[in-house]
C-alpha cells in the first residue's frame, strides 16, 4: 500500500510540475519535446507542438527543429539555428528568431519580436507591439493597430498596417510605424 501511495504521489508531482503553480499543464507532443514547469524545449530536427491553453509558457527550439507554440497567454519563444518555428501567442508575447531560422507568428497586443542574423520572419502583431529586425534578416510585419518596426544593418523589411495592408509610415531611416511615429 505504501509503495502504491508513493508511486501515485510521484506521478502526480510529475504532472503538476509541467504546468507551474496554478497554470494548467501545457501539452507537448513530438519526439525530443520536453516540458518542465511552463517551459518546453524542442531539439534535434523533430516536429514539436506545444499547446499551453490560456497559460503563459515558453518554448526553446534548437538544432534545426520544427516547432509550434500555441497559447492565448503570453508566449515566450526562442527559435535558433536553422529551426522552423510558428505559432500564436496572446498579449505580452516575446519571440526571438536567430541564425538562419524561419519564423511565422501571430502575437497579441504589447508583444515584442526580435529577428537577427539571417532569420526570415513573418509577423502579425497586435496593438502597441514592437519588432526589431537586424543583420541580414528578411522581415514581413503586419500590424493590427499601432506598432513600430526597426530595421538595422542589411535587414529587408516590409511593414503593413491594418486589414487593408496599408504601407507603414517611415519615421526615420529604418523605423516604420503604424500609427504615430
What keywords describe this structure?
181 residues; mainly beta; nine-stranded mixed beta sheet; 49% strand; disordered N terminus
Could you explain the architecture of this structure?
This protein has one domain. Helix content is 10%, strand content 49%. Strand 2 and strand 3 form a beta hairpin. The radius of gyration is 18 Å and the shape is globular. The termini are far apart. The relative contact order is 0.09. The N terminus is likely disordered.
Question: H/E order of the elements?
Answer: HEEEEEEEEEEEEEEEEEEE
The biggest sheet amounts to: 10 strands, mixed
Rg on CA atoms, Å: 18 Å
Strand order of the largest sheet: 2-3-5-7-9-11-13-15-19-18
Q: How many individual helices?
A: 1
Summed up, the domain count is 1
What is the share of helical residues? under 10%
What is the molecular shape?
globular
Task: Please give the alpha-carbon distance between the first and last residues.
Answer: 68 Å
Beta strand %: over 45%
Can you summarize this structure?
By secondary structure, the protein is mainly beta. It has one helix at residues 2-19; strands at residues 27-29, 33-36, 39-42, 47-51, 57-61, 66-70, 75-79, 84-89, 94-97, 102-107, 112-115, 120-125, 129-133, 138-143, 147-151, 156-161, 166-167, 169-172, 175-178.
Which helices and strands, and how do they pair?
Blueprint: H1 2-19, E1 27-29, E2 33-36, E3 39-42, E4 47-51, E5 57-61, E6 66-70, E7 75-79, E8 84-89, E9 94-97, E10 102-107, E11 112-115, E12 120-125, E13 129-133, E14 138-143, E15 147-151, E16 156-161, E17 166-167, E18 169-172, E19 175-178
Parallel strand pairs: 3-5, 4-6, 5-7, 6-8, 7-9, 8-10, 9-11, 10-12, 11-13, 12-14, 13-15, 14-16
Antiparallel strand pairs: 1-4, 2-3, 15-19, 16-17, 18-19
Amino acid at each position: 500500500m505504501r509503495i502504491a501511495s508513493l508511486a501515485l504521489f510521484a506521478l502526480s508531482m510529475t504532472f503538476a510540475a509541467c504546468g507551474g503553480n496554478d497554470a494548467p499543464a501545457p501539452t507537448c507532443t513530438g519526439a525530443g519535446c520536453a516540458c518542465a514547469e511552463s517551459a518546453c524545449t524542442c531539439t534535434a530536427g523533430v516536429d514539436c507542438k506545444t499547446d499551453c491553453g490560456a497559460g503563459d509558457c515558453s518554448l526553446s527550439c534548437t538544432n534545426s527543429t520544427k516547432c509550434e507554440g500555441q497559447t492565448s497567454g503570453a508566449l515566450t519563444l526562442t527559435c535558433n539555428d536553422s529551426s522552423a518555428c510558428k505559432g500564436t501567442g496572446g498579449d505580452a508575447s516575446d519571440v526571438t528568431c536567430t541564425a538562419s531560422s524561419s519564423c511565422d507568428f501571430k502575437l497579441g497586443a504589447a508583444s515584442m519580436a526580435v529577428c537577427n542574423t539571417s532569420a526570415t520572419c513573418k509577423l502579425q502583431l497586435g496593438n502597441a507591439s514592437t519588432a526589431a529586425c537586424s543583420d541580414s534578416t528578411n522581415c514581413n510585419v503586419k500590424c493590427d493597430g499601432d506598432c513600430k518596426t526597426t530595421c538595422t544593418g542589411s535587414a529587408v523589411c516590409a511593414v503593413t498596417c491594418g486589414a487593408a495592408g496599408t504601407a507603414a509610415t517611415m519615421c526615420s531611416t529604418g523605423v516604420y510605424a503604424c500609427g504615430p511615429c
